[in-house]
Amino acid sequence: MHDATSAPPISYYDYIIVGGGTAGCPLAATLSQKASVLLLERGGSPYGNPNITDLSAFGRALSDVSPASPSQRFVSEDGVINARARVLGGGSCLNAGFYSRAESHYAAAAGWDARLVNESYRWVEKVVAFEPPIKQWQTAVRDGLLEAGVEPDNGFTYDHLPGTKIGGTIFDGEGRRHTAADLLRFANPKRLTVMLHASVHRILFRTKGKKRPLAHGVVFRDASGNKHKAYLNRGGRHNDVIVSSGALGSPQLLMLSGVGPSDHLRAHNISVVLDQPLVGQGMSDNPMNAIFVPSPAPVEVSLIQVVGITKFGSYIEAASGEPFTAMSPANRDFGMFSPKIGQLSTVPPKQRTPEALSQAINSMQTLDPAVFRGGFILEKILGPISTGHLSLKTKNPNDNPSVTFNYFKEPQDLERCVGGLKVIETVIESRAFSSFRYSYLSLPMLLNMTASAPVNLLPKHANVSTSLEQFCKDTVMTIWHYHGGCQIGKVVDSDYRVSGVDSLRVIDGSTFIYSPGTNPQATVMMLGRYMGVKMLQERMRSGKNGMI
Predict the structure, then answer these.
(1) Cα distance from N-terminal residue to C-terminal residue, the chain
(2) pLDDT tens for residues 399-433?
């Protein structure tokens, strides 16, 4: 790994990958086996940062809003505060660590080769996937889900199976996070160059004498603002620029490079290379809603470990202990309900202003830690069906674009949320969970407490327990599974090539129509490996015919 300040003014490679995230790292490691690869990451290294590596520090990286933070906060036009990764390893450096494969029909619908998909998952799992230790609170949630009829009990498995299961985790037995960056150990170091703090400003195209625009390089700047150019080696028909910058970064970079809706590009004084109106469309974020359950008994620190996969399209997960409720007094981030990371679930999305966040943080700091003892049970819906769009705000690639997700715009999404909340209510009332809830706290009280906790400093709907639909809308949060913007079949083809352009691909979650499985990171890492193998196979076939 090198800081981009050490990059030469001009360099040449067989592949240039923009984004060293959850897909970009396994992709780079794989391609480097047979070709020269440049991996450009706008953030820094995850190594040596305990806020990334330590399970006990979950949430601290997300609450860090400094320019050097591995997490970059953004606020959707819906008013939900969110985050995007800015670090080698991408979202796998920031998330709650749950590892679970996509459903088998997801792979079939994507046109993926089932054998290679399974091989690619196993390649990833050699390094980053572990079986979590299941203790009392998670056991109670699992048994409560079974009592609620989310059956069968599938035990521990990485596979997506209807019923209740224990999934994998990217945290090892000592609580250390393993990320997509760790997959770079499989790379050929002689063929891979990794540049950190390298912000790509645009993709370079050749158009003269070409029937279609041809991507042939990128322009990037280092942390000092110095400009560098990297080009594809000439003469290789399979050499590509590959954008793996995530659901915000990939459509943003295409637009900044002149590939997108022509009217929108001209409005920002960007020369149009290809009028592609579907770039930035189909943006989705799976809404998360949760019920906080105070516990009379101590609870272990647990991240997402158990999942209930219902038949109606809602996934039930849970987490407990300090990282998800209240940290130690010196480092209170308030976990998933933290105003610091934007999860101000008790204030309606449109009212989550910086002033509201500041007031909420001050209010919460004065509370007795006992208030936060317990855990929360959440539901995330399948899909979702509701979609929005992304557009540029500025021409600076380091600025956040404007994004709208349109949470619960489609009625079926709201129905699935309500169904998931009903399952959560049944789990809370189950015999298995009885030792982790106060008997005098009724379900309506828990709902109203979740929606009207001390962080609720602004007006909102009263007594939301009478309407689960209203509870869904009022307490919507993100689970950071947003996707779309460069969707397959719309912006890219089945080989992830950008339609209408040569030598340019997009390989990451921006290509997804729906979020895969209960949690997408396993499939995003798999996709990087999968496409790397497919591309090398193409390269080798052409080589045998003397075409490299």
Answers:
(1) 28
(2) 999 999 999 999 999 999 999 999 999 999 999 99
- Cα–Cα distances (Å) from 168 to 65, 112, 391, in that order, read 29, 23, 36
Give 269-316 pLDDT, tens digit per residue: 999 999 999 999 999 999 999 898 999 998 998 999 999 999 999 999
Residue 530's nearest CA partner among 127, 102, 31 is: 31
| Distance from C-alpha of 218 to C-alpha of 245, rounded to nearest angstrom | 14
Residue 178 annotated as catalytic: no
State the Cα–Cα distance between residues 69 and 3, nearest whole angstrom: 16
Question: How many CB atoms lie under 10 A from the CB of residue 137?
Answer: 27
10 forms beta bridges with: 229
- What span, in angstroms and rounded, lies between the C-alpha atoms of 53 and 172? 10
Enumerate the β-bridge partners of residue 288. Answer: 380, 477
Q: What is the DSSP string of 321-333?
A: SGGGS---GGG--
The span from the CA of 346 to the CA of 464, in Å, is: 11
What does the alpha-carbon distance between residue 12 and residue 7 come to, in Å, rounded to a whole number?
Answer: 12
| Crossing angle between the packed helical segments 521-544 and 24-31, to the nearest 10 degrees | 30
For residue 237, give both structure tokens: 């028909």
Whether 260 contacts 504, CB under 8 Å: no
- Six-digit token string for 25: 């790292």
Residue 5 in tokens: 């300040």
The pair of three-digit structure tokens given for residue 128, joined into one six-digit string: 């980053």
- Find out whether 387 and 284 touch, Cβ atoms under 8 Å: yes
Among 197, 389, 481, 483, the active-site one is 481
Q: From the DSSP assignment, how many helices (H) and strands (E) are in the chain?
A: 13, 26
Listed in sequence order, the residues at least 6 apart from 462 whose beta carbon sits closer than 8 Å to its beta carbon are none
Using a cut of 0.90, tell me whether the model's pTM lies above it: yes
| Peptide bond preceding 339 in cis form (omega within 30 of 0) | no
In the structure encoding, which two tokens stand for residue 423, read together? 């399952």
Q: Tokens 């004498």 label which residue? A: 209
The torsion angles phi and psi of 417, rounded to 5 degrees, stand at: -60, -50
